[in-house]
Amino acid sequence: MMKTLVLVVHPNLAASQVNHRWAAAIEGQEGVTVHRLYEAYPDWQIDVAKEQALLEAHDRIVFQFPFYWYSSPPLLKKYLDDVLTYGWAYGSAGTKLHGKELLVAISMGGAHEDYQPGGRNQFTIPELLRPFQATSNMTGMKYLPVFSYGGLLKQSEADLDRSAELYVQHALRAEFSPLPLIEV
Asked: Where in the numbering of this chain does the Flavodoxin-like fold domain appear (predicted)?
């Protein structure tokens, strides 16, 4: 059975409209470990050995976060800088993540149509998430289709609940087509 590690990276998860739902929906699923980084490291002092062991123990890694300022919350960047070390995650001897899968799941206040050439943000979501794909490539991981949920400001409670169901289905899917993005 595939083991999935979900890194929930939200600086105020309790106030979240969707990330809180997603974490609750996927937690308790068979083979899933949910790890809330801001709760684990309120002082930002990341236990590198612990995090590397967690990554090694799982087959699929999910980065779940709110997408703002065209990137992830800053603790995820620090996590990547601290945990994905030379000789462990990359470099000639850095093979610990080879063959694992990386999936990015983002929530956005803006609508998907804002993230198109000619749209308000000018760039597509896959273009803006390219650094995560590059990280996946550098570490020998397989980059899976992004799960994105947009237009949060206009969604009903039922829509938000449905997004959690779709997120779990996507994050735990056994096989993926080569689609670059799943939009809901």
From this structure: 2-169
Q: What is the number of alpha carbons within 13 Å of residue 168 lying toward its C-beta?
A: 20
Tell which residue, 61, 67, 65, has the closest CA to residue 83: 61
Predicted TM-score of the model (pTM): 0.93
pLDDT of residue 179: 47
CATH code for the structural domain at 4-183: 3.40.50.360
For the chain, the domains span 4-183
Q: Which residues of 148-170 are buried (b: 16+ CB within 10 A; e: fewer)?
A: bbbbbeebeeeebeebbeebbeb
- Angle at the Cα of 138 (from 57 to 52), degrees rounded to 5? 25
Q: What percent of the chain has pLDDT over 90?
A: 80
What tens digit of pLDDT does each residue of 23-36 get? 999 999 999 999 99
